[in-house]
Give the backbone structure.
Amino acid sequence: MRKRIILSGLAVSVLMLGFLLTSAHAQVPDLSVWNGTWHRLNVRETGSNYDGARMNRDNQNSVIYLQIHDQIGPILNATLYLREDLNWVPVPIEMNFIGGAPLDFIFHVEFQSTDAIGTLFIGFAGQLSGRMVGGILRSTSFKSLGGYVWEQEAVESWARGLSITGNLISGPPPGVIVPVNGSSM
């Protein structure tokens, strides 16, 4: 009898825990406060490059821009603007909500691109926090919590750790051309 009571208690506990975790995971806050915001991001990549003959250090620093467009369920649709030669190239991404509140949450991004030259993988988890004053988003903090960049071409390979920090800016920087509908997605 005692075994049956213990097993019943354990079964009820497992069911309750499953219910609580499922319910908590299903609740995604309204993140619309981020719609239309622009962020300047400082990117630091630290890693190695294999050039086909030997391993080399490969560290890079860059500035990119992030425009958040809208929320669909647990996803914030956004565009990264990366500098290539003299142009800003829009790259659509999805910021997948993990948990938190509208003004302080964690998310993850996974991106893959394949072209004639090779394949690029980027992945990171991040935290986005903001401060409202008078109902207006006045300041933000964007930081990666861990990430990677991995590239493979015919002869060369790269693997780098990724660190991103940034904050809110008032609009698109000079030279960034935003599509008419405001989204490159």
Q: What stands out?
A: Residues 19-23 have pLDDT under 50 and may be disordered.
